Amino acid sequence: MNRKQTDKFATTIFTLFAAIIVLVLAALLGYVLYLGIQQVTWDFLTSKSSNFRAGGGIQDQLFNSFYILLWTMIFTVPLGLAGGIYMAEYAKGNKLTAVIRVCIETLASLPSIVLGMFGLLVFVNTFNIGYSVLSGALTLTIFNLPIMIRTCENAIRSVPLQQKEAGLALGYTHWRTTTTVLLPSAFPSILTGIILSCGLVFGEAAALLYSAGMTTPNLDFGNWNPFSGTSPLNIMRPAETLSVHVWKVNSEGIIPDIRDVADGGAAVLVTTILIFNISARMLGSWIHRKLTSK
């Protein structure tokens, strides 16, 4: 084959692989939504779940998912941003940096169930926090931290070197150049990474089985005292999330409408993650256009 034929053949192969990926994703989403979307009603979203009777909803589990996500990102974003800045701008090319990088890569490759067991051992038992929102958020922070560090590091490294040199040429210190030149330029990529991480955390189940628990107390949404055991804001209470609820209903549920609750919960879960991913792309593109006037 000549060069044109080789190029055409390679383009066809890559397009075929891309089409296969899109078809698999579309089939998966279509199957989940086809089974579950008809179960998703306002009453399903705003009523409490039941362990014995049919007709239960996912109100508490949906709230718990967003609440643990909030606390996870409160811990993850500052730590991930600090780690990314250090790895991109301050880490020297020595053995210590190599060890840190290996640790980050190893942590990123650990199965989430192993991190869940670590959360059980350290946060639930050793620190005696118990099955709680806090234990779940701290466990998910460890789960999510390598991704955030990589995202921030790559975003900062992607800023053109000329911008950094211009800041230093104006007499800025390294820290001021990082905070006033590099971080604003890298912000769209960092924000996109944060939102994508939100989707990852929202759908996580294995790490929460042994840290946040598989039950939820009878929450009173009129009680906003964060120290009350029935308050939704209490971070020391057990918190079954939506992904854990779907798994639990499918594996241990005895309610008559197991199939409907599991399908409806899965549809809400997938739709929310899809919204996270789409909004990350749209918001990142919008901020990039605003900053670059393109």
UniProtKB/TrEMBL annotation:
One of its GO terms (cellular component) is plasma membrane. Pfam families: BPD_transp_1. This is Phosphate transport system permease protein PstA. Belongs to the binding-protein-dependent transport system permease family. CysTW subfamily. Keywords: Cell membrane, Membrane, Transmembrane, Transmembrane helix, Transport. GO terms for biological process: phosphate ion transmembrane transport. It is found in: Cell membrane. GO terms for molecular function: phosphate transmembrane transporter activity. Residues 62-280 form the ABC transmembrane type-1 domain. The chain crosses the membrane at residues 12-37, 66-86, 98-123, 129-149, 186-210, 266-284. It is a multi-pass membrane protein. InterPro entries: MetI-like, MetI-like_sf, Phosphate_PstA. PANTHER family: ABC TRANSPORTER PERMEASE PROTEIN YQGI-RELATED, PHOSPHATE TRANSPORT SYSTEM PERMEASE PROTEIN PSTA-RELATED. The gene is pstA.
